[in-house]
Design goal:
The chain has 103 residues and is mainly alpha-helical. It has a domain of 59 residues. It is built from 5 helices and no strands. The model has no long low-confidence stretch (mean pLDDT 79).
Length: 103
């Protein structure tokens, strides 16, 4: 069995392009980037609360955020920065730019 260093050196020798953009979310983000993990966790709960909300549509977003924050406080989890959370929720819906195709 080859070890990891050999595999890494093989890929470096081939000079394969690395993935662009931010690294994907990993379970270790809870330890290495707790602020970002808190934002992702809160965003998950906000989406669920929005889907289950049966009240009027006006103010649904604010109600979902308050519910998520209350739930996270109850569970003893870290409360994310509100601005970072709003940014994540807005950016997660943005479509990526289409690639240029050779026709």
């Amino acid at each position: 069995m080859t070890d990891v260093a050999e595999i890494d050196s093989f890929y470096k020798a081939l000079k394969l392009p690395g993935r662009r953009g931010r690294p994907a979310w990993r379970a270790t983000d809870e330890l290495t980037r707790p602020d970002e993990a808190a934002v992702r966790r809160a965003a998950f709960y906000i989406e669920r609360f929005k889907l289950s909300d049966r009240g009027p549509r006006k103010g649904r977003h604010e109600r979902a955020i308050e519910q998520a924050f209350d739930y996270l406080r109850e569970k003893g989890r870290q409360i994310p920065n509100r601005e970072s959370l709003e940014h994540f929720l807005r950016r997660s819906k943005r479509k990526t730019k289409p690639g240029i195709s050779a026709e």
